[in-house]
Amino acid sequence: MKKKIWTVILALGAINYIFMALAGESLGLDTQGNQPLLFGLSALFLFIIWLMWRKPKPSKQAKQAKRSNSPLEGMVIETPGPRVQYLGGRIYDYGTGKQLSKKQLRCIRQTMELNRDRDRRVASDCLELTTKTMNPDVFFFRYDMLIETLALLSLYHRLFRIPSQSPEPELRRALESRNMLTEDFIRRSHSNMAQKAAALKTEKARCGRYEKYYQEMGLYIEHLSAQARQTLEELKQRDAGYLTDETVETSVAPAPKAVSPVVGKEVAAFSELPFTIPDDVLNLLWIKNGPLCNCAAAEENEPSAIDLSLPLDLSPTENDQTADIGYYPSYERLTPAKRTVYLQWLSDISTPVPIGYVFIFYYGLERFLFTDKYEAALAMIDRLRQSHENSSLFAYSADALLAGCLLHNRPDLISTFDIGKASMDLYLYTEGYLTGRFTAHDLISTCRRWGFTNTRYIKGQPELFETQLTEVLTEKYGSPAFPLAREDYACAERTFTIALANTSLPQDARFAAAKDITSNPDVAQNVCSLLQEAHDRAKRILAEERKKNR
Predict the structure, then answer these.
(1) Closest of 434, 435, 433, 445 to residue 469, by C-alpha
(2) Rounded to whole angstroms, what are the CA distances from 365 to 276, 404, 429, 513, 527?
(3) Residue 150: other Cβ atoms inside 10 A
(4) What is the SS3 assignment for 167?
(5) 0.85 exceeded by the pTM?
């Protein structure tokens, strides 16, 4: 209270001295030559107020304590780039132990920005599934994905000071509630299993159901805390009447899966597989060994590269075929059964499959954009877009299609693809840079980017507006298009980043800076003038029609 009173007193004093300095003589006060003193006193009073209310700067120790209190501290995080570790507010490459450079951080941030909305949805879905699922595969996989996603989002917010609410509290709660969630899952899944077992007609079937449940849970024993293991063991002892003596006597330990005799099979060539991969797909695969080997040292980290020496399980289960394979997947990190699922899907890439498998193939197509097979790669990317609906795939692939046309100076290819979900910046850059013009439709669909906000007739009378704009363009330029010179891009004031999804590509290939043509003030002014003229003409035509109809 005293602090507030003194603040008011000092503020009034400062105002009084300023008033005397400025208007003292007009009020009959003798302030001649005293203005500097009066201004100095007012400044002193304001400085005292600032000292009273300023927040003390945190000490270095306090900052370190704050950092160490973060749930990110010490975590190893799978980013769009390298695996990193967060230590004391800094990010280190987990593989090399070196701190990431500003360029590396900038590249990671650009990809994080593209995936941020998707990651938030994934985190929400994972949280919901961990509280509802009865399947141990789903529970443990989704919980790990939840932590991974929240850590990635938290890292993004902490490093780049995003103003929106940080997900760090959610990450902390998820980490702290692991035991609770796991125990809840055990009791929930056990209750569900017991209900289903009770509905079975024979004792043998009921015993089989209980045996299967504990075998499946045993596969995840390493994921359980001591308390969760105790809970599972108590349930197991209670269900001893439904289990064999061997199962009861042994602790809950990983139980081996029923293994097909072909598990661990290695193939020397694709011809040895029990299914056929079409030539057009086979021609766009990166292969590390065998007769079709085409991976050089530069592509050794290519996530889509197929290593024929890795074992396959040619009898994948239904769960193998439907389970999500996580973020930034690669062929090498797949299980033997899931490698088979991927290779089998390659025999018909139009069939539904978890989107991770599609991305493995897609990563390789992005690399082919930098080779003489770019046309085939572009056509295959477009084919994937037609067969698989996924927002991330649509966004990345649309940009890749335009980037491929731009890279090889092929404006003729743009019209052959459906570029929906492409970055508007990239579309304008590619269309304008390669064709040297913008059509009336281009200008209308991007009108707000140029600064034209009066969209009354664009929305209400789209055909009339486009007709009038076409006429305006034809009258002024002799053709129904706005001419654009490549020099116009040099005067653009803003840039944007073209980003590909394949994290193994060189940074200068994966990320490229391009000029935002809408930030060229002269071009933007001309476009707005054209749009305004079309607007005025549409307005006059409609007014005349209304007059005739009266």
Answers:
(1) 445
(2) 20, 11, 22, 21, 37
(3) 27
(4) coil
(5) no
